[in-house]
Amino acid sequence: MSVIELQGVEQRFHARGTPDGYLTALKDATFTLQSEPPQIVSLVGQSGSGKSTIARNILGLQKPTAGTISFDGKDIFKLSRTEYDNYRRNVQPVFQDPYSIFNPFYRVDRVLWKAVKKFGLAPDRAKGLAMIEESLDAVSLDPAGVLGRYPHQLSGGQRQRIMLARIHMLRPAFVIADEPVSMLDAQIRKTFLDILLDFRRDHGMTTLFITHDLSTVYYLGGDVMVINKGTIVERGAVESVMHEPSHPYTRLLLDSIPQPDPDQRWTNRIHVDDSGTQTPDSAPQEPVV
């Protein structure tokens, strides 16, 4: 079992015009991610709350001002080169803007082939290509439709799924997904979330899913941490936090979810039996006049 542990992590940035001369983006972040059993843990909060700072810290892109981040008991900023290469393979990112990952002068194949070569995933080119095609199929992409193309020739959803195909090839213990669906339309968003769920079920990957959107958190299930102004203010199972929030900020986030029709509220769900027949559990309330 692999474990990522954050203990008392703080992140401060120099900032003019502030009383202390710095801005605190993260305060005493302490939590653990484990690969067994595989989890989906969401980190939710508004823009500027410190979510992406945590992602950069875990990925080793930014060293925290205080506290420690450890992988299997070792500080990630003190790993040897070999240990760090192992960490990089086992902790893979998915970012908000997939276009920034690709070099526009190279075909998208390059991102996948670099993973094959760097981590020795296949003994020869034929088996490497077979692995790439298998992983593209696993994320609902037609290899013939994307291989050989340049980044600008693909949609945002296709570019995101190419990064998921890379993850499928590497089979990391952890996926750090930082606002990965905020630029995708509704249908592609659902496909992306379903792939993350498949990764957990079929390949034992634990995902830290970072978002501002509580609807995607509810869809993924698992556990959730709520962060506000750099502090994790609430954590627990998604069902309990969404239905019985204990912190005012969590209630504020829930109250901020727009209703499709504010004048008509549904009191219950639609029941679907084994034959696919839909039956309303209850009728909608009368509109408020």
Protein described:
The chain is α/β, with parallel strands linked by helices. It has a single domain (3-280), classed as Rossmann fold (3-Layer(aba) Sandwich), CATH 3.40.50.300. The chain is 35% helix and 25% strand. It has helices at 51-58, 81-90, 109-118, 125-138, 143-146, 156-170, 186-203, 214-220, 238-243, 248-255, and strands at residues 3-14, 22-34, 40-44, 66-71, 74-75, 91-94, 174-178, 206-211, 223-228, 231-237, 270-272, 278-280. The strands form three sheets. The chain has a six-stranded mixed sheet with strand order 6-7-8-3-9-10, sandwiched between helices. Strands 2-1-4-5 form a four-stranded antiparallel sheet, with helices on one face. Helix 4 (125-138) packs across helix 6. Residues 266-278 and 282-289 have low confidence and may be disordered.
What's the level 1 CATH class?
Answer: Alpha Beta
User: Which stretches are low in confidence, meaning pLDDT under 50 for 5 or more residues running?
Assistant: 266-278, 282-289
| Largest β sheet strand count, sense and barrel closure | 6 strands, mixed
DSSP, total strands: 12
Estimated structural class: alpha/beta
Distance between the termini: 57 Å
CATH topology: Rossmann fold
Helix content: 25-40%
Total helices: the number is: 10
**Domains, number:** 1
CATH superfamily: P-loop containing nucleotide triphosphate hydrolases
Report strand %.
15-25%
